[in-house]
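input
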Amino acid sequence: MKKTFLSTALLGALVALSGCEQSASITNLTAATFKVDGKEIYLRGEMNDYAILSSYKLVKEDDYKYCALAPLRADWAPYRFKFADPAWTNGANFGFAQAPGVLREGSSPVLLNRFSRFEELRYFPSEDGVYQFCISVDGDEYYAIVSKAQHAKLGLIDSIFVKQDEKTLENTEE
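output
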C-alpha cells in the first residue's frame, strides 16, 4: 500500500512538473501575426471560401514577410484571393494596386492596395500542392508573393494533403 501511494504521488509530481514545462514551451510557440490597426489579417479566397480560419491567419515569416499556407489544385486555377481582416475593413483589405494582379510561379511580387474594395488577386499554381501566400512589407508599401511551400514549413494537415497527392499520382501511373 505504501509503495502504491508513493508511486502515485511521484507520478503525480512528474505530471505536474511536465505540465509546467509544456505550458512554457507552448507559450514560446506562439507566432506573431500580421495586424493592421490592431486587426489580424487572413488569407481569404476561393481556396477557403473566403472564411476566417485560424490556419489562414498571416504569421511572421521574417521581419518583413507574413504568410499563410493553402493547399491548391492546378486544375482549379486560377484562385482568386485577397488579404483582409474579418470585417473587410477599409485600410485592412489588401487587393491589387494595379491591374491585372496576376501571380504565377516565379513571377514578380504584386503591389497591394490596403484600401481595396473589389480588386482580387489571382494565382495560377503550376501543379497540385501546398502554397505559401505572403505579404511582404517595404516601408509603407505591401506586396503579394506566392510560392510553393517547402516541406519543412508544412503542418500536419498540409503534409497529409501532399502525401494524398503523391499516393493519387502513384495510382494513376500504374
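quick obs: The first strand starts at residue 35 and ends at 36.
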